[in-house]
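C-alpha cells in:
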C-alpha cells in the first residue's frame, strides 16, 4: 500500500488580512505535532517569543517541535528539505505572500508525490475588503486569491461595520460562488479544519457545542461542530467518490479510514479526505490493532448536515 503522504495547506490573503495571526494560532494548537511552516519573511511572521527555541540562519526551531523556514527564492527546494527531514513532519503549512496567487504555490506542492494538498485557505479583511476590491490596482489580485480558495475566511468581523461586513460577504459570494465562507475574529480557525492530521491529534480543537475545552475567544465550540461515526459496512469506492462529488452543503472538512472493498485477502481500506470543495479517496493500509473504520466531519454550528451524514454512512 502507498505510504501516508504529508498533508500541506496553503494560506493566502492580502496584506493585513490575518495570515500571521492564523499561523501563530495554529502553532499554539500544534502541541505534540511536528509542523513545518514555510514563510516568505520571518520578520512579517513575528513568531511568539515564548515558542522560539533556537534560530539558525533561515530556520527557526520552536519549543513544541515545529519548525519555521524562510522560503527564499526556491519553494521547491524548501519542500524537498521538509520531505527529506530526518525526523518526519506531520504537516506543512505554506504562507503565500500578500500579493501572490496561492494556487500557484499549491501547484508546486502538488507536483511532489510525497505531499497531499489539504486545501487553500484565503483570508479577507472584512473591514476593508469592499474598498480594496473596488481599487483597479488591486481588484485582479484579490479576485485571483479568492478563486483559488477551498475556504474563505472573512476575518476581523469584530472591527468591521455592519455595512462593510455585508459588502465583504457579497463580494466574496459574487467572486467565488459556491466556496465555503466563514466569519472569524482574530483568525480563530481551528487547526483541525484543514490540517489533515490524525483524528486523535486534532479532534479536541473542533468540538461540539457541549465541549469544555478552553479555546480562547471566540469559543470554537460555539462556532464549529463535529460529527463522527464508525461505519461497519463496506462502502464501495465508486459510491464514495460519487458522494464526495456531491457533498451535502455545510460540510467544511471530512476525513476518515473506511472499508471500501473485500477480497480473498481480507478487507480493502481507503483514506477519505474532503476539504472546502474537493474530495479524494486513496488506498490505505488497514488500521493497526483492531480493524475499526472511522470518519469525522466538521462544519459550522447548526449547519452540519448530520442527518445526511448518518444516512450515507449507515447505508
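Residues out:
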Amino acid at each position: 500500500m502507498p505510504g501516508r503522504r504529508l498533508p500541506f495547506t496553503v494560506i493566502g490573503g492580502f496584506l493585513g488580512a490575518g495570515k500571521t495571526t492564523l499561523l501563530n494560532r495554529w502553532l499554539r494548537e500544534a502541541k505534540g505535532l511536528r509542523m513545518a511552516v514555510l514563510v516568505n519573511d520571518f520578520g512579517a511572521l513575528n513568531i511568539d517569543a515564548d515558542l522560539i527555541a533556537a534560530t539558525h540562519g533561515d530556520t527557526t526551531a520552536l519549543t513544541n517541535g515545529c519548525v519555521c523556514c524562510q522560503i527564499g527564492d526556491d519553494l521547491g527546494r524548501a519542500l524537498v528539505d521538509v520531505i527529506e527531514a530526518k525526523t518526519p513532519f506531520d504537516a506543512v503549512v505554506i504562507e503565500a505572500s500578500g500579493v501572490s496567487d496561492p494556487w500557484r504555490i499549491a501547484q508546486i506542492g502538488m507536483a511532489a508525490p510525497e505531499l497531499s494538498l489539504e486545501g487553500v485557505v484565503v483570508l479577507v479583511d472584512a473591514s476593508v475588503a469592499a474598498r480594496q476590491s473596488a481599487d483597479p490596482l488591486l481588484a485582479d489580485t484579490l479576485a485571483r486569491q479568492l478563486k483559488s480558495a477551498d475556504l474563505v475566511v472573512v476575518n476581523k468581523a469584530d472591527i468591521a461595520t455592519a455595512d462593510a461586513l455585508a459588502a465583504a460577504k457579497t463580494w466574496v459570494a459574487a467572486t467565488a460562488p459556491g466556496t465555503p465562507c466563514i466569519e472569524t475574529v482574530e483568525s480563530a480557525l481551528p487547526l483541525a479544519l484543514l490540517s489533515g492530521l490524525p483524528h486523535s491529534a486534532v479532534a479536541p480543537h473542533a468540538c461540539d457545542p457541549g465541549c469544555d475545552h478552553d479555546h480562547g475567544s471566540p469559543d470554537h465550540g460555539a462556532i464549529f461542530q463535529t460529527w463522527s461515526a464508525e461505519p461497519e459496512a463496506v462502502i464501495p469506492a465508486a459510491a464514495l467518490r460519487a458522494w464526495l462529488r456531491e457533498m451535502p452543503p455545510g460540510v467544511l472538512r471530512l476525513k476518515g479510514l473506511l472499508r471500501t472493498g473485500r477480497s480473498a485477502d481480507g478487507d480493502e481500506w481507503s483514506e477519505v479526505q474532503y476539504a472546502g470543495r474537493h474530495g479524494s479517496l486513496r488506498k490505505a493500509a488497514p488500521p493497526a490493532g483492531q480493524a475499526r473504520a472511522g470518519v469525522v466531519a466538521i462544519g459550522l454550528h447548526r449547519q452540519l448536515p448530520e442527518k445526511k451524514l448518518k444516512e450515507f454512512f449507515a447505508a
